[in-house]
């Protein structure tokens, strides 16, 4: 069984993707940024952008019946290596006790230049 959810974000319909997909026991959350109601929040603040992106990703998981304890992998995309400490600090506040596999990659840019961070999450229903 495959279940797809949308958040109503501005790019989901335009680009043609789901906010999150549950495929059997695995859940995949698309890249989340600090975009709320179509507007980038916390411009210039990688820490707060990371917190917001993770909160959006976890909200998506909750809609699929999963929580942060089910997270098995995260990917953090940052537009500047100088943000790594702040992004890592925010990530640890959510996942320090969960300890998912994680990657942090520096990218040339995101879809909106005010976005500094994008977060992807994979989860497994049997992980709790």
What does this 3D model show about the protein?
- It is globular and about 40 Å long.
- The strands form 2 sheets. A 6-stranded mixed sheet has the order 1-2-3-8-6-7, with helices on one face. A two-stranded antiparallel ribbon has the order 4-5.
- It has helices spanning 10-16, 46-63, 84-95, and strands at residues 2-5, 20-23, 26-32, 35-36, 39-40, 71-78, 101-106, 117-124.
- Helix 2 runs parallel beside helix 3 (84-95).
- The chain has one domain (2-124): 60s Ribosomal Protein L30, Chain: A, CATH 3.30.1330.
- It is of the alpha+beta class and 128 residues long.
CATH class: Alpha Beta
Give start-end ranges of low-pLDDT stretches.
none
Q: Could you tell me the mean pLDDT? A: 96
CATH topology: 60s Ribosomal Protein L30, Chain: A
The biggest beta sheet is recorded as: 6 strands, mixed
- The CATH architecture designation is 2-Layer Sandwich
What's the domain count?
A: 1
Helix content: 25-40%
% residues in beta strands: 25-35%
Looking at CATH, the homologous superfamily is RutC-like
Order of helices and strands: EHEEEEHEHEE
End-to-end distance, in Å? 21 Å
Q: Judging from the principal axes of the Cα atoms, what is the shape?
A: globular
Total strand count, please?
8
What is the alpha-carbon Rg in Å? 14 Å
Look at the helices and sheets and give the structural class.
alpha+beta
Q: Please count the helical segments.
A: 3
């Amino acid at each position: 069984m495959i279940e797809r959810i949308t958040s109503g974000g501005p790019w989901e319909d335009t680009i043609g993707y789901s906010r999150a997909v549950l495929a059997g026991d695995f859940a995949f959350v698309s890249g989340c940024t600090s975009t709320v109601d179509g507007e980038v929040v916390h411009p210039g603040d990688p820490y707060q952008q990371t917190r917001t992106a993770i909160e959006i990703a976890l909200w998506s998981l909750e809609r699929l019946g999963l929580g942060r304890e089910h997270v098995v992998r995260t990917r953090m995309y940052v537009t500047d290596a100088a943000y790594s400490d702040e992004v890592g600090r925010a990530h640890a506040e959510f996942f320090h006790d969960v300890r998912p596999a994680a990657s942090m990659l520096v990218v040339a840019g995101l879809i909106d230049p005010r976005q500094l961070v994008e977060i992807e999450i994979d989860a497994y229903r049997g992980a709790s």
